[in-house]
Every structure is written in structure tokens, then in C-alpha cells.
Amino acid sequence: MGGRLAMVSLGVVVLVAGVLAALMSVQLSDSGQRQAEQVTRSVAETLAHEPEVAALVGTRDSDALQPMVEAILADADLSFVTIMTPDGIRLTHRNRDEIGEPYLGSRDEALAGQTFTEVYGGTLGPSVRTIAPIRRDGADDGEIVGLVSVGVTLTAVQADLAARVPLIVTAAAGIVGIGILGALYVRRSARRVTGSYTPSELARLVESYETVLHSLREGLVVTDHRGRIVLYNDEAADLLGLPPAAQGQVSLDPREIDMDAALADGIATGRRMVEETVVTGDRVLLVNQEEARDLSGRRAPERGRVMTLRDRSELQALLGELEGVRTLSDTLRSQTHEHGNRLHALLALLELGRVDDARRLIVASTEERQDLADRLVADSDAAVVVALLLGKLDEAAERGVALELHVDEPTPALPLAPGEAVTVVGNLVDNALDAASTGAEPRWVRASLTRRVPDVAIEVSDSGAGFDPNLADPFAFGASTKPAAVPGGRGVGLALVRDIVAAHGGTLRVTADPTTIRVVLPAPVEAVPA
Fold first, then answer.
1. How many Å apart are CA 4 and CA 23, to the nearest integer?
2. Within 10 Å of residue 75's Cβ, how many Cβ atoms?
3. 121 pairs with which residues across the strands?
4. Is the dihedral of CA 115, 116, 122, 125 positive or negative?
5. Which end of the chain is more exposed for a tag (fewer CB within 10 A), N or C?
6. How many other C-beta atoms are found inside a 10 Å radius of the C-beta of residue 222?
7. What's the half-sphere exposure (Cβ side, CA atoms, 13 Å) at 476?
8. How far is Cα 253 from Cα 248, in angstroms, rounded to an integer?
């Protein structure tokens, strides 16, 4: 590619140099001929108005005129000066043998009293000559007694031009030399930009690039060294709310676009981002940003940054549903197991005739959850959360952990879909139970759901040892200290909690002694008392 551009550039320069040289040659040729016409006319008119010349012509004195003409030829850059009679008989000539011979050339205009210039082929070859009438006594209105012809041969004119040829050649060579340097620069610059690609390969590359760019299901954003967005694809436009992607480069300041402030700052500053979760609008995005690389794969910070965006909203929803199903299934399993134990105990007491003990066991089993059970029937909006908490009571008992529940009356409504509510509450309680069950006695978990207008708060505390200090971010995807074989995967639950809370404009805070996670969400409008 670079070689072809260089050859084309050099060819253009050589062509331009040739055209300029030709134009200069023509210009000099015309200039030389015009100069010859001016010189010959000036000398011819000067001699024609000289009284001494008129007197000598009147007497046909060639012997006196010839030395005078030879002196003029010696001093002036002329090829010949011919003085003749009105009928054209030469009185002087450069070649003395031609004296007395007829003059070769036009005389009519001179005989009519006009000075004129022509190009004519005489005894010395083609020449530029001026013929002027010589009048008696040199007077303007005197009788014409002779004619004078002053000329410069074209050979002499061309010889004069030949002396200027080196200048033309030098100028053309200089232009070609500059063209060669320019072609080398073009070749080097083109290779630095396009590598070793041929034009056809580069065309296919651009076509493939356009196809891939607009077909990617991931968002792609390219920024320059100033942090301005210069290129993005259709998916990035959809994810970030940018104008429709178009061919060519743009120049957008990310801070002037309606997007998450942290994401806009990350794009503008060009900081490195690796699998970072960003919430913008109702989307949860997974963001990576690296320095751009050149064709050889080396990092090229001066070329800006490349950012990829993946929409994790659908994945999050699926994971949330899966996590909710897992939480409910675990809760139902624990509840079934605990109820089975109670039924076995009741059956044994009845078979032994200990009806009062059986009655007391039933009362004890229902007292602690009767309030929540009543709400489950009365409050359909919070039924999912209430049912989940009821199930967690049995799971906690099965794992030897005391679960204390505090839920405001009426049950606060959460600004979450049922599946999201199960994911948030279930994961917070599950992680607290996990931590408490592996800690020292007494093992306990406290969970509360309270309303503080205009917000709703979910707070879960436990007696466990707290988060592993080796985890940089316990809420990051994959961050977990559980064994790999734990059902439900590793490091998913708390990451989903953070994403759901962020997507709904809530806050999440962690404190220690005891370990407490507090989630605050804006209450639904209908849940705020008038």
C-alpha cells in the first residue's frame, strides 16, 4: 500500500516537473523572440534616422557603410545589419561577397514608409528581422532613399536560450528531488498506519470491520487521548443512550451525555476497568476498558482507549430467578423436614396418651409464627417475603441458629418484583445463617423489615465471624469463600443483591461487631402514608 502511494506521488511530481519545464522552455523561447524583435527594431530605427547613413545611402557608398555596420555588429548582439537601396540591392552584408546582390525578404511595407518585423529565411538561415525605411537627411517626411534590415538568426536566439537550460533542468531536478523525499515520507507514513496491507486487503479489512462493528452484541466504545468518544457501535448506542451510530468518527464529551456519572468519568479519564458492574438507567452493565493497541499488538496510549459493554440485566434477572427458586426450595425442604419432626413427636405423644404435652407442643410451634402467618393471609402484596421468612424460621431451627424476625405492621411494601424481593431477602438471610452456623455459641441471626418514610429498610445481623478480609469486594461476582461444590454456585447471591439494590436506586451498607448488612430502598409511592 505504501509503495503504491509513493510511486503514484512520485509519478505526479515527475509529471508536474515535466510540464513546468516545458512551460518554462516555451516561456523563455517566446521571451527570447520578443527580446530579439525589440533589439532589432531599436537598432533599425536608430540607423534609419541617422542623417549620415541617409547621405551615404544616397551616394551608394558601400565602402563607408560596411565598416560602420561591422562596428555595430561587433558591439551589438546582432546577426546582421543590411543596408540596401529601395530596389533591394545590398550595400552592406555580414558576408562581403553578398554586397551588390538582391536582398531576400519582404520590402513592401518598408517602401510604404512602415517599420515592420518578420521571421524570414535568408542567406544566414531563419532570422528575426526588422526592416525600416531610410529617408533623405533622416527627416520623418523625407524621400525614401534606402532600407535597413537588422536581424538575429533563430540559431543565435536558441543559443541564448541554451544558456538558460541548466536553470530549467536544475529547477526540474529540484522539484523531482522534493517529490522523491515526499514519496518516501508518504510511503513511510502509509506503512506506519496501514502496515503491509495492499489496497484490496485494506478494503476488505474496512468492510469486515464495519460488518463486525455493527453486528456485535456487545457495546464497543473507542475514545481518543483526550477522553472524547470518537467511535461506537449500535449496541453501545442502545446501552448508553447515545445518538444512532453512524459511519466515520464523532467527537462526544461523555460528561455531557445522560449516563451514569461514574461511567462517564471512567470514559473521560481513560482509567483501566476490568469486569466492573455499572448501573445506568434500568440496565446493569459489565464494563471493561483498556488502552488501545497498534497493529503489532503493542499498547498505544496516544491512540486512546477501547471499552466493551455487556448488558447483564437479562443474565441478572435469570440468576435472580434461579437464586430465588433455590432459596424457596431450600426453605421448603427445611420446612418439610421440621414439620416432619414435629409430626413424629406429636404422633409419639398421642400414642403414649400424653395429650396435654401434644397440645403444648402444637401451641409452642404456632405461637412464634402466628403473627406472620396471619399476615400471609391478609397481605397479598408482601405474601412472598412473609412466606420466605416463615420458611427461614424452620431452616434456622434445623441448623441450630436462633432466627429473630422483626417486621413492621403492616408489612412494608418493597419496590421490587416478587422474584427480586426473594433474591434480596433470601440471600441476605442465607448468608447470615451460613455465617452464624459456623460460628461459636450462641448462634443467632436477626432480620428486620421496617419502614422509615420515604424509605424501606432491610437489616440482617448475625453472630458469625464476618466477611473474609482476603476478599477485596465480597459483593463482586465470583467473590466467595464457599467450596466450589456448594449448590447454587460461588459468589452469585450477594452480587445479585448489590445489582438489584443499585438498579432500584437503593443503598447498601456493611458494618461490623456484629456483622450487619443494611439495605435502604425508596418505598413505592402507594406505600407512603398520606
1. 28
2. 8
3. 126
4. positive
5. C
6. 18
7. 11
8. 17
210-218 contact pairs (CB < 8 A, 24+): 210/247, 214/245, 218/308, 218/309, 218/310
pTM, two decimal places: 0.43
Name the residue with cell 482507549: 305
CA distances 379 to 306, 371, 383, 408, Å, are 51, 12, 6, 13
What cell does 399 get?
Answer: 441448623
Is residue 443 within 8 Å of residue 463, measured between CB atoms?
A: yes
CB atoms within 10 A of CB 505: 11
pLDDT in tens, the chain (530 residues): 456 656 766 677 777 777 766 766 666 566 666 777 788 888 888 888 888 888 888 888 888 888 888 888 877 778 888 899 988 888 998 888 888 888 888 888 888 888 888 887 766 677 788 899 988 866 667 788 899 998 887 776 666 666 666 776 777 777 777 777 777 777 777 666 666 666 677 778 777 777 777 777 788 888 888 888 888 888 888 888 788 776 656 778 888 887 778 888 888 888 888 878 777 766 778 889 988 876 555 666 667 889 888 887 666 556 556 655 666 566 556 556 556 666 666 677 677 777 776 666 665 555 555 555 555 444 545 667 777 777 777 778 778 888 888 888 777 888 888 778 888 888 898 888 888 888 888 899 999 988 887 889 999 999 988 887 767 677 766 555 554 444 444 456 777 788 888 888 889 998 888 889 999 999 886 544 44
Q: Which helix (H) or strand (E) holds 445?
A: strand 444-452
